[in-house]
Design brief:
This protein is α+β, with helices and mostly antiparallel strands and 433 residues long. The chain is built from 12 helices and 16 strands. The chain has 2 domains: 243 residues, DD-peptidase/beta-lactamase superfamily (Beta-lactamase, 3-Layer(aba) Sandwich), CATH 3.40.710.10; 137 residues, no CATH class. The chain has an 8-stranded antiparallel sheet with strand order 3-2-1-16-15-14-13-12, sandwiched between helices. It has a two-stranded antiparallel sheet with strand order 4-9. Strands 5-6 form a two-stranded antiparallel ribbon. The protein is globular.
Length: 433
């Protein structure tokens, strides 16, 4: 056999290195996946109505079915002042859509026998061993009874007055994953935590032990209440302790690199021309908004610190739909994914809306009729504060992603519906992912 010349070998090597480590989900014709092209146009119409109503400046929408992307569009502007059109590869602050990614990391640690669902948090952060629970004082309880706890630090409105009692039990990993822990989950606990937040250059390990002095909002497991940041920050720290590496490096090595999520990061991509501008809705229209202070490249918030793109996030969603694997890369076992989407907090638990239970880091649709949406029973996913949203529908083999950068007003459910109504049949060709 004739030997290749060094120059030829060099060119081949460069070409090989230029290939992506993991191929992206392929694009296909909608009809081949049982989706109507005509009906998919309603997505653009919905987004345009939202833009004209000034609910957000622009958005990116992406839909995959049976392992093929059947819709991927950019709408509106990513910078109003510069009149810059939205790009399909725009980068977004995904906020609480960070949570299912951290939930997956916890499940990985469970698979390795390093974490259990019923583990007390104090196993990893000892300061959580002897937590108290806040009990609201009656309005007329100023003349007697237990003394009120201090509230209203820094000139902010005072928190409701309360006294504390011992927790019936320690909070667990399961409590945090399901938002049933009571950790900074309401007015009393958030008021008591005011002023304790992470300082510049502090990490998860620096800040989180201080939360051991903050009372829980309620007795663990007795209700559902959203822990917007701290609950999943604690879970991120648990992954760090269990794995022996920082959460940003863990996610990069164990999730982002294998799945080809090349733009997903905790490091603010300031100066990147693909970073969509953040806006808040005001009486005078959309106004530019600064990034949250914790997005500083040092504090890696599991509650909402990641940046990502629609194309990146659909890789994560497709991995879940594929029972834990994508493109030959096994991230989770099928059993772990089944546990994630199982209903750990029912829709009858105080705090949960009818028709929608809660799994391990994701909402779970248990009754589409009670929820008043088109999604199939068993669909699961989550959303972010600034207008990001995703879901996985195992019955219809669909992953839907919506990316925007303004807090939404009802568009999430409308988007789910216009995607689902476009599904009209079985696929004539399926993907290989």
């Amino acid at each position: 056999m004739q030997k290749l010349k060094p120059v030829v070998l060099g060119v081949a090597l460069v070409a090989l290195l230029a290939l992506p480590l993991t191929a992206a989900i392929p694009t296909g014709k909608p009809e081949e996946s049982g989706v109507s092209s005509d009906r998919l146009r309603r997505i653009s119409e919905l987004m345009q109505r939202q833009i004209e109503a000034r609910n957000f400046s622009g958005a990116v929408t992406l839909v995959a079915r049976h392992g093929r992307i059947v819709h991927h569009e950019a709408h509106g502007l990513m910078d109003l002042e510069a009149k810059k059109p939205m790009q399909k590869d725009a980068i977004f602050r995904i906020m609480s859509m960070t949570k299912p990614i951290v939930g997956s990391a916890v499940l990985m640690m469970m698979e390795e026998g390093k974490v259990r669902l019923n583990d007390p948090v104090s196993r990893f952060i000892p300061e959580f061993r002897d937590l108290k629970v806040a009990v609201a004082m009656p309005a007329a309880a100023g003349r007697g009874g237990p003394p009120p706890a201090a509230g209203g630090r820094g000139g902010a409105p005072p928190a409701p007055q309360f006294y504390t009692v011992p927790a019936d039990r320690q909070i667990t990993v399961r409590d945090l994953l399901t938002h049933t822990s009571g950790l900074t989950s309401g007015t009393m606990s958030n008021g008591a935590a005011r002023g304790l937040g992470a300082k510049p250059n502090e990490t998860l390990a620096d800040y989180l032990p201080r939360l051991g002095n903050v009372p829980l909002e309620f007795q663990p497991g007795t209700r559902w209440a959203y822990s917007a940041a701290d609950g999943f920050d604690v879970l991120s720290r648990i992954v760090e302790v269990a794995s022996g590496m920082p959460i940003n490096r863990f996610l990069q090595q164990r999730l982002f690199d294998p799945l080809g999520m090349k733009d997903t990061t905790y490091i603010p991509p300031n100066g990147n021309l693909r970073l969509a501008k953040l806006y808040s809705r005001t009486a005078d229209g959309l106004r530019p908004q600064n990034d949250p202070g914790f997005m500083n490249g040092v504090y890696f918030s599991g509650g909402g610190g990641l940046f990502s793109t629609a194309e990146d996030y659909v890789q994560f969603g497709q991995m879940l739909l594929n029972e834990g694997q994508l493109n030959g890369k096994r991230i989770l076992s099928p059993r772990a994914v089944e546990m994630m989407r199982s209903m750990y907090a029912s829709d009858t638990l105080p705090g949960r809306p009818r028709g929608e239970g809660y799994g391990l880091s994701v909402r779970v649709v248990v009754d589409p009729v009670a929820r008043n949406t088109f999604l199939s029973a068993g669909s699961y996913g989550w959303s972010g504060l600034f207008g990001t949203h995703f879901w996985v529908d195992p019955k219809e083999k669909v992953v839907g992603v919506l990316m925007a950068q303004t807090s939404p007003q009802g568009v999430r459910e409308d988007y789910e519906n216009v995607v689902t109504q476009a599904i009209v049949g079985l696929p004539t060709a399926t993907g290989t992912n």
